[in-house]
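Quick illustration, no need to memorize.
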Amino acid sequence: MLTVASDTDVHVDLLLDVAQGDRDAFERLYRAASSRLFAICLRLLPDRAEAEDVLQEVFAAIWHKAEQFDPSRASAMAWMAMIARNRCIDRLRSPGHTVRTTAIELGEELPDHGETPIDAALASDDRERLQRCMQRLDERRRGLIRTAFFDGATYEELATRSGAPLGSVKSWIRRGLLQLRACLEQ
Protein backbone atom coordinates (compact mmCIF):
# COMPACT_ATOMS: atom_id res chain seq x y z
CA MET A 1 0.00 0.00 0.00
CA LEU A 2 1.26 3.45 -0.89
CA THR A 3 1.68 6.12 1.73
CA VAL A 4 1.42 9.64 0.48
CA ALA A 5 1.88 11.62 3.68
CA SER A 6 4.58 14.23 3.35
CA ASP A 7 7.66 13.76 5.44
CA THR A 8 9.19 17.01 4.21
CA ASP A 9 8.52 18.80 7.49
CA VAL A 10 10.12 15.90 9.38
CA HIS A 11 13.28 16.15 7.25
CA VAL A 12 13.43 19.92 7.75
CA ASP A 13 13.08 19.61 11.53
CA LEU A 14 15.70 16.86 11.66
CA LEU A 15 18.16 18.82 9.51
CA LEU A 16 17.74 21.89 11.69
CA ASP A 17 18.40 19.74 14.78
CA VAL A 18 21.45 18.19 13.10
CA ALA A 19 22.74 21.71 12.47
CA GLN A 20 22.69 22.14 16.26
CA GLY A 21 24.82 18.99 16.68
CA ASP A 22 21.97 16.64 17.70
CA ARG A 23 23.29 13.11 17.10
CA ASP A 24 19.92 11.46 17.72
CA ALA A 25 18.35 13.68 15.06
CA PHE A 26 21.16 12.69 12.69
CA GLU A 27 20.44 9.00 13.29
CA ARG A 28 16.71 9.55 12.67
CA LEU A 29 17.51 11.55 9.53
CA TYR A 30 19.71 8.71 8.29
CA ARG A 31 16.89 6.21 8.82
CA ALA A 32 14.36 8.49 7.13
CA ALA A 33 16.39 9.54 4.09
CA SER A 34 19.14 6.98 3.44
CA SER A 35 17.09 4.73 1.13
CA ARG A 36 16.19 7.61 -1.18
CA LEU A 37 19.73 8.95 -1.23
CA PHE A 38 21.12 5.46 -1.80
CA ALA A 39 18.81 5.09 -4.81
CA ILE A 40 20.32 8.26 -6.27
CA CYS A 41 23.83 6.91 -5.67
CA LEU A 42 22.95 3.58 -7.32
CA ARG A 43 21.53 5.30 -10.38
CA LEU A 44 24.70 7.27 -10.92
CA LEU A 45 27.23 4.68 -9.76
CA PRO A 46 26.55 1.18 -11.09
CA ASP A 47 28.85 -0.48 -8.54
CA ARG A 48 26.89 -1.12 -5.33
CA ALA A 49 29.97 -1.00 -3.07
CA GLU A 50 31.01 2.31 -4.54
CA ALA A 51 27.46 3.68 -4.11
CA GLU A 52 27.56 2.61 -0.45
CA ASP A 53 30.89 4.40 0.02
CA VAL A 54 29.52 7.57 -1.53
CA LEU A 55 26.40 7.36 0.66
CA GLN A 56 28.71 7.39 3.70
CA GLU A 57 30.40 10.51 2.30
CA VAL A 58 27.00 12.10 1.69
CA PHE A 59 25.95 11.69 5.31
CA ALA A 60 29.30 12.94 6.54
CA ALA A 61 28.77 16.03 4.36
CA ILE A 62 25.22 16.44 5.67
CA TRP A 63 26.53 16.33 9.26
CA HIS A 64 29.16 18.97 8.52
CA LYS A 65 27.04 21.21 6.28
CA ALA A 66 23.65 21.01 8.03
CA GLU A 67 23.98 24.59 9.27
CA GLN A 68 24.08 25.73 5.62
CA PHE A 69 20.63 24.26 4.93
CA ASP A 70 18.04 26.98 4.31
CA PRO A 71 14.44 25.68 4.18
CA SER A 72 13.36 28.81 2.32
CA ARG A 73 15.60 27.94 -0.63
CA ALA A 74 14.99 24.19 -1.05
CA SER A 75 13.22 21.26 0.49
CA ALA A 76 15.30 19.13 2.83
CA MET A 77 15.23 16.14 0.49
CA ALA A 78 16.18 18.27 -2.53
CA TRP A 79 19.13 19.72 -0.59
CA MET A 80 20.35 16.28 0.49
CA ALA A 81 19.76 14.83 -2.99
CA MET A 82 21.91 17.59 -4.47
CA ILE A 83 24.72 16.64 -2.11
CA ALA A 84 24.36 12.96 -3.11
CA ARG A 85 24.32 13.79 -6.81
CA ASN A 86 27.35 16.06 -6.55
CA ARG A 87 29.33 13.46 -4.56
CA CYS A 88 28.54 10.82 -7.18
CA ILE A 89 29.63 13.10 -9.98
CA ASP A 90 32.81 13.94 -8.08
CA ARG A 91 33.49 10.20 -7.72
CA LEU A 92 32.90 9.57 -11.43
CA ARG A 93 35.26 12.41 -12.37
CA SER A 94 37.97 11.51 -9.87
CA PRO A 95 41.35 10.44 -11.21
CA GLY A 96 41.71 6.70 -11.35
CA HIS A 97 37.98 6.02 -11.49
CA THR A 98 37.25 3.39 -14.06
CA VAL A 99 33.93 2.14 -15.24
CA ARG A 100 33.73 -1.54 -14.49
CA THR A 101 32.54 -3.65 -17.35
CA THR A 102 32.09 -7.37 -17.78
CA ALA A 103 32.84 -9.40 -20.85
CA ILE A 104 29.65 -10.26 -22.69
CA GLU A 105 30.52 -13.95 -22.48
CA LEU A 106 30.09 -13.77 -18.70
CA GLY A 107 26.62 -12.26 -18.98
CA GLU A 108 24.86 -15.54 -18.27
CA GLU A 109 26.78 -15.98 -15.01
CA LEU A 110 25.88 -12.56 -13.61
CA PRO A 111 22.82 -12.41 -11.38
CA ASP A 112 20.03 -10.11 -12.46
CA HIS A 113 19.21 -7.80 -9.55
CA GLY A 114 16.68 -5.85 -11.59
CA GLU A 115 13.00 -5.57 -10.95
CA THR A 116 11.12 -8.84 -11.31
CA PRO A 117 8.01 -8.98 -13.50
CA ILE A 118 5.85 -9.28 -10.37
CA ASP A 119 7.48 -6.20 -8.83
CA ALA A 120 7.00 -4.29 -12.08
CA ALA A 121 3.32 -5.28 -12.24
CA LEU A 122 2.74 -4.24 -8.61
CA ALA A 123 4.50 -0.93 -9.16
CA SER A 124 2.41 -0.34 -12.27
CA ASP A 125 -0.79 -1.07 -10.31
CA ASP A 126 0.32 1.36 -7.58
CA ARG A 127 1.05 4.05 -10.16
CA GLU A 128 -2.37 3.55 -11.77
CA ARG A 129 -4.12 3.74 -8.38
CA LEU A 130 -2.22 6.92 -7.53
CA GLN A 131 -3.07 8.41 -10.92
CA ARG A 132 -6.80 7.60 -10.48
CA CYS A 133 -6.78 9.13 -6.99
CA MET A 134 -4.95 12.24 -8.23
CA GLN A 135 -7.64 12.69 -10.90
CA ARG A 136 -10.29 12.81 -8.14
CA LEU A 137 -8.69 15.92 -6.64
CA ASP A 138 -9.78 19.34 -7.81
CA GLU A 139 -7.44 20.88 -10.36
CA ARG A 140 -5.82 23.38 -7.96
CA ARG A 141 -4.90 20.76 -5.32
CA ARG A 142 -3.71 18.31 -7.96
CA GLY A 143 -1.47 20.95 -9.54
CA LEU A 144 -0.03 22.09 -6.20
CA ILE A 145 0.71 18.53 -5.08
CA ARG A 146 2.35 17.64 -8.38
CA THR A 147 4.48 20.75 -8.35
CA ALA A 148 5.45 20.34 -4.69
CA PHE A 149 6.27 16.65 -4.72
CA PHE A 150 7.35 15.93 -8.27
CA ASP A 151 9.09 19.22 -9.09
CA GLY A 152 10.36 19.90 -5.56
CA ALA A 153 8.83 23.37 -5.22
CA THR A 154 8.61 24.79 -1.70
CA TYR A 155 5.38 26.05 -0.17
CA GLU A 156 6.70 29.59 -0.51
CA GLU A 157 7.40 29.11 -4.22
CA LEU A 158 3.93 27.67 -4.72
CA ALA A 159 2.34 30.62 -2.92
CA THR A 160 4.29 33.06 -5.09
CA ARG A 161 3.43 31.21 -8.32
CA SER A 162 -0.25 30.89 -7.49
CA GLY A 163 -0.62 34.34 -5.94
CA ALA A 164 -2.31 32.79 -2.91
CA PRO A 165 -1.43 33.22 0.76
CA LEU A 166 1.12 30.74 2.13
CA GLY A 167 -1.33 29.39 4.72
CA SER A 168 -3.93 28.68 2.04
CA VAL A 169 -1.42 26.82 -0.10
CA LYS A 170 -0.37 24.67 2.87
CA SER A 171 -4.02 23.94 3.70
CA TRP A 172 -4.89 23.02 0.12
CA ILE A 173 -1.95 20.64 -0.10
CA ARG A 174 -2.67 19.08 3.29
CA ARG A 175 -6.34 18.53 2.44
CA GLY A 176 -5.36 17.12 -0.93
CA LEU A 177 -2.94 14.69 0.69
CA LEU A 178 -5.61 13.58 3.14
CA GLN A 179 -7.96 12.95 0.21
CA LEU A 180 -5.24 10.98 -1.55
CA ARG A 181 -4.56 8.87 1.52
CA ALA A 182 -8.26 8.07 1.94
CA CYS A 183 -8.56 7.13 -1.73
CA LEU A 184 -5.44 4.95 -1.68
CA GLU A 185 -6.55 3.12 1.46
CA GLN A 186 -9.83 2.03 -0.13
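The longest helix spans residues 23-44.
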